[in-house]
Amino acid sequence: MSDLLDVKKLRVTFPTASGPVDVVKDISFSLGRERLGIVGESGSGKTMTGRSILRLIRPPGKVTAERMDFEGTELLAISEPAMRKVRGARISMVMQDPKFSLNPVMTVGEQIGEALAVHEKLPRRRVKQRVLEMLEAVQIREPERVFGLYPHEVSGGMGQRVMIAMMLIPEPSILIADEPTSALDVSVQGEVLSIMNDLVTRKGMGLIFISHDLHLVSAFCDRILVMYRGEIVEECRADALHAATHPYTRGLLASVPRLGETRAELPVLDRSAWETA
């Protein structure tokens, strides 16, 4: 089966007073109909990678790549109007703390319906029907009631589900999820992951799951990319993360607390082990 997305030598650069800084440095990866995790510390380039795929890096930031092919379309070569037809409809992104990405003066139903209406010309009755079906798909009880609520009237977990529903209603080929569960408690986190897994598996989409939580990603994803300072330092199967060999990945794993912890102190990353290699 061919890849949905093929990225080669992606670079994201920002100007600074001391010269240009590369926040993503010539990374290459592919995505099939699978769950691909991207992990690393804050500032490692995870979010910039996701945003660059959708061309959401605005000037003075600059995105270049030898190739960024999405289902036969070179994303960096098409016009902005053509790219707007890709965003949301074919590639969607759930932003970090997605509840705060919702418009506070529009109802839940209006916002999800707008995400559909932008890409499909449907009668208003049909749009509402599709929205109610999607609210049910993300396991929201009483979808008719929630349809008319405003963002401040829904809980954090429900806000996450609403945002996921909004991103999935156009039935994209790829979903990019940037820390979609970081603000949720463990029980709600599990429910949201279950919903995403079901929808991705059933619809045959590709998922890019961006997170700093190594254990969560290793349990949920199929493959993992480990990023450090804008570079991919290791790639492995998710179920083989415990056997990772790069010193940075080993350091991340060692610094995570464990149940029944017996160590007096958690180890600190020794960056000299790989930065001077």
Written account of the structure:
- The chain has helices spanning 46-53, 80-86, 108-117, 124-137, 143-147, 156-168, 186-203, 214-220, 247-254, 272-275, and strands spanning 5-14, 21-31, 35-39, 62-64, 67-70, 73-74, 91-94, 174-178, 206-211, 223-228, 231-237.
- Strand 5 (67-70) and strand 6 (73-74) form a beta hairpin.
- Helix 6 (156-168) runs parallel beside helix 7.
- The chain has 10 helices and 11 strands.
- The mean pLDDT is 88.
- The chain has one domain: P-loop containing nucleotide triphosphate hydrolases (Rossmann fold, 3-Layer(aba) Sandwich).
- It is α/β, with parallel strands linked by helices.
Largest sheet: 6 strands, mixed
Shape: globular
The CATH H-level superfamily is P-loop containing nucleotide triphosphate hydrolases
Q: Can you tell me the CATH topology?
A: Rossmann fold
| Proportion of beta-strand residues | 15-25%
Residue-averaged pLDDT: 88
**β-strand number:** 11
Q: Return the structural class.
A: alpha/beta
Q: What is the strand arrangement across the widest sheet? A: 7-8-9-3-10-11
Low-confidence stretches: none
The CATH architecture name reads 3-Layer(aba) Sandwich
What's the alpha carbon Rg, rounded to whole Å? Answer: 20 Å
Question: What are the main properties of this structure?
Answer:
277 residues, alpha/beta, Rossmann fold, 6-stranded mixed β-sheet, 5-stranded antiparallel β-sheet, 10 helices, 11 strands, globular
Helix and strand layout, with pairings?
Blueprint: E1 5-14, E2 21-31, E3 35-39, H1 46-53, E4 62-64, E5 67-70, E6 73-74, H2 80-86, E7 91-94, H3 108-117, H4 124-137, H5 143-147, H6 156-168, E8 174-178, H7 186-203, E9 206-211, H8 214-220, E10 223-228, E11 231-237, H9 247-254, H10 272-275
Parallel strand pairs: 3-9, 3-10, 7-8, 8-9
Antiparallel strand pairs: 1-2, 1-4, 1-5, 5-6, 10-11
Helix pairs in contact: 3-4, 3-6, 4-6, 6-7
